[in-house]
């Protein structure tokens, strides 16, 4: 039977017979590597070339049977989903036109779900771009019916046609999918890349989950991971199948680790500035050193080392030339060992030294104006020379990079800089602790008070974290690294000091300062009424700040990805904790309950290896 030969009565009979095939495409959490849900794709029963389901839906649109066809497809999808025993969410496509139609009643869904004993909270109604609504108010009413039943709402193909920021603002979805157009070739297109980054940031700010769909090659996937992607869908990860994949392909689980370890993001490390100039020994004659300078016109400085390659001093071309050109200079010094005239080492730094510390030392000491070279060592032994000019140039480039990657709301370093910092610590085997801060009940706050007020709260979080992280860092002469992951998520990297005490103080101070952002009535009743994530209109507690701390085993972790997985676990535990509890959660506890302790008005999870 050809689709071109379909009549209205024929299509009605087909709908009644439910003679369709159902496939499911997985949607993965790329941090946990498991499927969080599946999009149902019902296929036409016709043989090729009329197998394309779009043709069948176009016929349904022509005959005014869109609502009936979609309802039929939903029942088939739910039945098959339950039969396969799939976990997670079931994404069901729905056109705006069908949703607004009264005959497309959401009230028929509860009975359908009862038939298959299916939890409505696991249903995601995905609004497609095809067949736009004729009346926006009817569409909103139809969507609210689904929300009242506990369904989640998703916008498909964000960025195309009507599926833009206006629809995001009006529909207030739980989930949005970035259209394939923006994903395709994003690794080669800076505009697409920045738009995707902005969408990820907007999702975090508004509490909306963002899915990148249509990923078809590895380069796209790896870039999206770096830009902050958490949920993904596409042929690279899993094709639509009657029995879909439930785990992310092993190749993609391992590949990001290979990429990270191969590129430790050490773009601004001091080791890159080293000039491998051969040193000399202390007993070599001044005449021999002078001859070396004459033979190499561009050579300005030579380091002097002992038998163990430990730096002893520096010899400068201009000073040695002046010394030997004086009256009787050659007669007095030619046969003398260079140790007699060398200068003591003014600055000697390890190749893994903090650039800020090196830069501060240089700017505080004027002798570098005359001799702008210093010695770089590896584990105490001579590695080469570096110039002041090169390190100041590096610092400038790094500050420019920080500014380019900074979060526009808080001006704190963003994901790329955070990744570089963590990878740098891992590659150098430096112990550290990482605190992950996150606001609880932020989406309802945005709904009640508006996005402008939400931005002010995010700034408050940033201000408190910066103030007290720096305060604790100064106590130990160690500047803590602070980054803004996006939305209401922040991280602090501690290399010394009491991270737990610092985080407790941050939460206590936030608890006091946030009160001024609420109306008095809401403070008195300890919350406000709004729609929660389950679609229920209920009393939402006042905003609070949670924090999870991890102490990665530097000998076990291999990349920033490992740290991200641990931080996600700590964040989850912190958000589930009751305010006022400190949780010490050690990995490998085999499901044992975490240890609980109490502090005043704070909520901290402490996760160790």
From TrEMBL:
- InterPro entries given in the database record: CBS_dom_sf (IPR046342), Cyclic-di-GMP_PDE-like (IPR050706), EAL_dom (IPR001633), EAL_sf (IPR035919), GGDEF_dom (IPR000160), Nucleotide_cyclase (IPR029787), Rev_trsase/Diguanyl_cyclase (IPR043128)
Pfam families named among the record's database cross-references: EAL, GGDEF
For this chain, one GO molecular function annotation is: cyclic-guanylate-specific phosphodiesterase activity
Q: Which domain of life is it from?
A: Bacteria
What region holds the GGDEF domain?
430-587
**Residue span(s) of domain EAL:** 4-254
Q: What is this protein called?
A: GGDEF domain-containing protein
Q: Which organism is it from?
A: Thalassotalea euphylliae
């Amino acid at each position: 039977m050809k689709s071109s030969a379909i009549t209205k009565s024929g299509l009605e009979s087909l709908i009644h017979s439910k003679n369709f095939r159902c496939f499911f495409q997985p949607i993965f959490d790329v941090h946990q590597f498991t499927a969080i849900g599946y999009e149902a794709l019902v296929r036409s029963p016709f043989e090729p070339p009329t197998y394309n389901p779009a043709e069948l839906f176009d016929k349904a649109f022509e005959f005014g049977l869109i609502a009936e066809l979609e309802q039929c497809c939903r029942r088939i999808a739910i039945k098959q989903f339950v039969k396969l025993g799939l976990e997670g969410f079931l994404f069901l496509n729905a056109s705006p036109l069908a949703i607004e139609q009264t005959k497309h009643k959401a009230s028929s869904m509860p009975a359908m779900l009862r038939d298959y004993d299916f939890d409505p909270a696991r249903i995601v109604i995905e609004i497609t771009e095809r067949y736009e609504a004729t009346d926006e108010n009817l569409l909103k009413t139809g969507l609210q019916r689904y929300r009242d039943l506990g369904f989640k709402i998703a916008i498909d193909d964000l960025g195309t046609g009507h599926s833009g920021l206006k629809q995001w603002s009006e529909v207030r979805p739980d989930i949005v999918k970035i259209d394939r157009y923006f994903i395709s070739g994003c690794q080669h297109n800076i505009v697409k890349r920045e738009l995707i980054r902005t969408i990820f940031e907007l999702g975090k700010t508004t509490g909306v989950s963002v899915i990148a769909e249509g990923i078809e090659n590895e380069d796209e996937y790896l870039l999206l991971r770096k830009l902050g992607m958490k949920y993904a869908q596409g042929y690279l990860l899993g094709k639509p199948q009657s029995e879909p994949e439930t785990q992310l392909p092993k190749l993609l689980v391992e590949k990001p680790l290979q990429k990270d370890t191969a590129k430790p993001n050490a773009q601004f490390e001091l080791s890159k500035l080293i000039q491998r100039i051969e040193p000399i020994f202390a007993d070599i004659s001044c005449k021999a050193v002078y001859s070396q300078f004459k033979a190499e016109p561009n050579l300005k400085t030579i380091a002097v080392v002992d038998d163990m390659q430990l730096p002893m001093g520096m010899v400068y071309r201009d000073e040695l030339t002046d010394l030997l050109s004086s009256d009787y200079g050659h007669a007095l010094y030619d046969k003398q060992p260079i140790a007699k005239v060398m200068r003591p080492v003014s600055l000697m730094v390890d190749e893994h030294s903090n650039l800020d510390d090196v830069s501060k030392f240089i700017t505080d000491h004027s002798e570098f104006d005359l001799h702008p070279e210093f010695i770089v060592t590896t584990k105490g032994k001579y590695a080469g020379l570096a110039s002041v000019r090169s390190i100041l140039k590096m610092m400038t480039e790094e500050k420019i990079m920080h500014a380019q990657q900074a979060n526009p709301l808080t001006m704190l370093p963003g994901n790329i800089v955070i990744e570089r910092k963590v990878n740098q610590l891992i590659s150098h085997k430096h112990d550290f602790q990482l605190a992950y801060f996150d606001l609880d009940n932020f989406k309802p706050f945005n709904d009640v008070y508006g996005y402008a007020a939400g931005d002010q709260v995010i700034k408050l979080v940033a201000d408190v974290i910066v103030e007290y992280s720096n305060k604790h860092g100064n106590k130990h002469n160690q500047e803590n690294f602070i980054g803004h992951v996006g939305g209401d998520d922040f991280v602090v990297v501690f290399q010394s000091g009491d991270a737990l005490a610092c985080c407790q103080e941050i939460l206590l101070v936030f608890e006091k300062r946030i009160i001024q952002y609420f109306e008095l009535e809401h403070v008195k009743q300890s919350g406000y009424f709004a729609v929660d994530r389950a679609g229920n209109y209920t009393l939402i507690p006042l905003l609070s700040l949670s924090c999870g701390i991890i102490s990665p085993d530097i000998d076990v972790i291999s990349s920033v990805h490992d740290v991200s997985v641990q931080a996600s676990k700590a964040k989850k535990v912190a958000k589930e904790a009751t305010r006022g509890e400190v949780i010490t959660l050690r990995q490998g506890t085999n499901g044992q309950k975490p240890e609980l302790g109490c502090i005043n008005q704070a909520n901290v999870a402490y996760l160790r290896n």
